[in-house]
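lol ok so funny story. i was supposed to be doing the assay writeup but got distracted and ended up predicting the structure for this chain instead. priorities right. anyway since i did it might as well share w the group, maybe its usefull for someone
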Amino acid sequence: MDIQQTLTKYISEALSNELPKETELNTRFHLLDTMVAILTGRLLPPGKKGFEFSKNQGGPKEATLLGNDIKVSAIHAGFANGMAAHANETDDSHTNGRFHPGCAIVPATLAIAERENLNSEEILKAIALGYDIGVRITTSLGYETPKTTIFATHSLGPIFGCAASAGALLKLNHQQCNYLLSYTIQQASGLACWNRDPDHIEKAFVFSGMTTRNAIYSALLAKENFTSVTDPLLGERGFHEGFAHNPKPNLIINELGKKFEIDHSSLKKWSVGSPIQSMMDAVEYLLKNNDFNHKDIKELTIEIPSDRFHIINDREIPSISAQHLIAVHLIKKTMGYDEAHDENLFNDPDVVALRKKIKSVSSDELAQARPERQSKITILLNDGKKLFYHASSVRGTPDNPMDKNDITAKSKRLFKVFSNSKTDDLIDCILNKNFTIKELVELSNLNI
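and the output, tada:
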């Protein structure tokens, strides 16, 4: 059986396969993490715009705009919940896959699960499947570094992951999964110019809104037996020929069913951009292990991997500006939802004064270092004392994973923005119970 047929057969049979216990638990972690991202993201511009747009589009009432009880089509629910899921930079990521799986795959899964009235076993299997397919597709393209990549892996990975999840939940047969793949390929798009977006709205669209919407559309077309070409993945003028730099087609099915990529994904401890996670770890360490005040700082130097320097260096958006977040963390001595997203802090006199003392250095050494996304912070105090920390293993990554206590604490910290007792029940339900999609949606209704 060739690569495409092996892939599509696996998707068609995925819900019949059992997840390892550790993988099932990790999938619960990522489901909870993304639910937190969706609900808190509803308060920010990408989430607000996705909600307002989708609730007015009409169509069948198939799935819920999470955080409320308004039902729209599965396509528009996936779109709106996807926009919200990446709004506040707390969603997960996959370093090798170079995209954020949860913010797209979870909304797609939940939208179709609600349309089909499914349960937690099917939902968890579909989510894990989405991570497996999305990561394998992007790694097979052979892209070298983010700086040399024109096509957006942050949209290519999600659309294939979402399509696999949605297709499995719609119980597509093997032939229909071939249709699914072809229509997904025709809709695959996205350019890396998203990283110049000053408002995070187009970025959320590229990462999750567009990808979730298009993938659900592909799955519904396949369910209705829209036929397709037979070899869109690796055939002439197909996906690999159009998108790959250094094609590695065997990676598409490598260890499929044996290695589960959700186990190799990263959860964020902090509600900030992925390359800034290590800096927040460093600031936390320095604050815990040294007695100093932000006013004692004469100069601060941050060393940033050169391949991610342009993504986070002195950006206009609070949650992806390294200098701003370091300053806020040092002043507030914490980094929660408000600290990461309060735009008023951008002009706070203390924050502005401290930012002026922060120097950033682009480091090729850190770009080559493994694990990825390391950083170094050096602080020179007014009394001449020097503080230093090299954050080499970021909390939440596969090298330093978060456990159930960590993900619970993070969820409760971010849920403080809501004065609603249902959030504790939502956390418990996702982490510990066998639930129906109806129960999950009801617990998510915070009247946002």
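The mean pLDDT is 96. The longest strand covers residues 297-305.
back to the writeup now i swear
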